[in-house]
Amino acid sequence: MMAFGNWKLLFVISLGVFLRFSFRYSSYYGEISKRVEVSSPVSAWVRVVEGVKLKKLNIQPYDGNTFHESPIFLRFYQFIVNYLNEFQIVIFFMLIDMMTAFILSKVSIIQLNLMKTNDQNRMKTHLKDNDDKKLCEKLFIKPGSIFNCAEWIIWIYALSPYSILPCVAQSTQVLQNFLISLVMLTASNGQKFLSFSLLALSVVNTFYSLIFLPPIILILEHSTKNTDDSKSQQSTIQMKSFISSLFIFLTILISLLLLCLCIENGSFQFIHSTYVFMWTVSDLTPNIGLFWYFFAEMFDHFRTFFIWVFQINYFLYLIPLTLKLNDNPYFLFMITLMNHSIFKPYPTVSDFVLYLCMLPQWSHLFEYMKSTLVVSGTIATTSVLAPILWYLWIVLGTANSNFYFGITLAFNIGQIFLITDLIFAYIKREFYFNNVDLFKICKKTGKSPRIELSYN
Asked: Which H or E run includes 443?
């Protein structure tokens, strides 16, 4: 990983901490903590404090519409609120945020090195001399760019307003991001039990993290894959490993759920408040997601049907993506992060920044992308207009909910365009890898064939 003596890196971290402190102790803190783009009914710190106080008074925090996280996390929040003062809590959130940035950069270094080695092994039979290597140089991940990508990840996460504002608001999504980054790191290092334990802990708190299970299993399989085995042996080994991985994960998950039950003295009340609440989308507070407006306008007799449609839609894309991208589980995890940010019921900008900062890892795909300007322009424009239209709707009353939903819809469409463009770039690069002779001709002639996605 990068040396801590790097003055640029130290400057970025110092500036990130300074900005977080500045906003936290400014007059804008109250407004930031209430922003619907930053905190949701699930992740708002004010709900955490209220839940802890109710627990202290021996009142069930899972009654009503107050607290929506697991009993394990509630115990953790009790420790933070009861034993740390306000300043120490601020420091805690900033440390977690900065650690997330460094962990993600470390993940990027590990994964890029593994992908670089894999690409070189794939191309050994196609590249016969130095001239071929020079022609196909752009297809490869450059060793010198790996650390630059890792530094960019820290830059983006430390200085992006999408990560600064949730940290200032003390959104619990900051802790979830930290947990997901640890899952990525342990899986990339091949630490099966630890990665499944961390993922199960995340799933216990929000079952939508279950979407990360297939890419995590594939990453672990990829890190322990033996290329010397025959195809039939590999398939048998992979099937046995998959079954054992699933068994380990389910065992840990059930154990954590039983622990939650013990913490609640056998009461199942937390299940409704933590899981059923999110599944049924009970709170229609506006956010940057797609659920709230649709179900606010929905007739009650259609609600159950469309709840199932929306929830299945969240998990459905994982099946074709896993089948198509199983050869590169790191890219599959990246696309899954993006899917998670768009289609979960209560998203915040914390979900968005988790994959945004990881984009430099895939900079070798950027030259194959087509809609970079449109996507970046859409996301930047909607990010600026969202709080303006919220102010016009809620404060001035000169607009209505259609204005705000329209801008959040455009924001999500921008993210969808980014997913499709990134997948197209990945498939195009893979096409060139599988057709190296065509790529050589393109480089020699300076002409590129028209490549389109086919459904055949």
From this structure: helix 436-445
Residues 6+ apart with CB under 8 A from 54: 60, 61, 66, 67
Residues in CB range of 233: below 8 A, 6 or more apart: none
Q: Where are the alpha helices (DSSP H) in 143-172?
A: 143-159, 161-169
Phi, psi of 232 (to 5 degrees): -65, -40
Query: Kindly report the CA angle at 344 between 428 and 403, in degrees rounded to 5?
Result: 95
Q: Longest C-alpha distance within the chain, in Å?
A: 76
Residues sharing a CB contact under 8 Å with residue 130, sequence separation 6 or more, in sequence order: none
Which of 322, 334, 343, 388 has its CA nearest to residue 362? 334
Q: Say whether 190 sits in a helix, a strand or coil.
A: coil
The answer for residues whose C-beta is within 8 angstroms of residue 252's C-beta and 6 or more apart is: 196, 197, 200
Query: Which pLDDT tens digits describe the chain residue by residue (456 residues)?
Result: 444 447 888 899 999 999 999 999 999 998 999 999 999 999 999 999 999 999 999 888 998 888 999 999 999 999 999 999 999 999 999 999 999 999 999 999 999 999 988 887 777 665 655 555 555 667 778 888 888 999 999 999 999 999 999 999 999 999 999 999 999 999 999 999 999 999 999 999 999 999 999 999 999 988 666 555 555 566 677 778 888 889 999 999 999 999 999 999 888 889 999 999 999 998 889 999 999 998 988 888 889 999 999 999 999 999 999 999 988 999 999 999 999 999 999 999 999 999 999 999 999 899 889 889 999 999 999 999 999 999 999 988 888 889 999 999 999 999 999 999 999 999 988 887 777 666 655 655 656 656 555 555
List CB contacts of 326: < 8 A, sequence separation 6 or more. Answer: 218, 332
pTM above 0.70, yes or no: yes
Q: Do the Cβ atoms of 274 and 327 come closer than 8 Å?
A: no
From CA 6, how far away is CA 9, in angstroms rounded?
5
Q: Where are the alpha helices (DSSP H) in 264-365?
A: 269-271, 277-280, 291-296, 300-316, 318-325, 329-343, 349-356
Task: Give CA–CA dist 273/389, Å, rounded.
Answer: 31
Cα–Cα distance between 188 and 218 in angstroms, integer?
10
